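Quick one, tokens below:
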């Protein structure tokens, strides 16, 4: 939830807790509203509290590149660095193993994608939206 450094607090979080008492209460209410509106999926960047809600499917962002310190020109993870495999394995173990038996996991995003500057440098198309043919 949005943090306001000028007041060292999150006004949204304070209002949410005022309405729902806890994060779990917010998640339960949100899941019920989603179901009422005909949705069964929480976005990949949703609160992890949504993962515990019955009938809610979700995807997990692993941030494997974002969490990697060694980059090429500070734009893209150096996947040839000898520690790359060690680092991403630790992330996968930490994030995937606890969810291994969760039937509501749709899948995992290895990362949030490369920044546009990286795509230009690598001369790759930007996969913003892929529509079915």
């Amino acid at each position: 939830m949005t943090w306001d450094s000028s007041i060292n607090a999150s006004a949204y979080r304070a209002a949410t807790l005022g309405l729902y008492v806890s994060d779990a209460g917010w998640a339960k209410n949100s899941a019920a509203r989603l179901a009422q509106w005909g949705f069964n999926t929480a976005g990949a960047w949703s609160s992890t509290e949504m993962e515990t809600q019955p009938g809610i499917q979700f995807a997990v962002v692993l941030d494997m590149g974002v969490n990697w310190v060694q980059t090429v020109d500070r734009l893209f993870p150096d996947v040839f660095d000898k520690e790359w495999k060690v680092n991403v394995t630790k992330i996968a173990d930490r994030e995937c193993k606890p969810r291994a038996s969760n039937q509501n996991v749709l899948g995992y995003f290895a990362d949030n994608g490369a920044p546009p500057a990286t795509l230009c440098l690598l001369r790759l198309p930007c996969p913003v939206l892929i529509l079915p043919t």
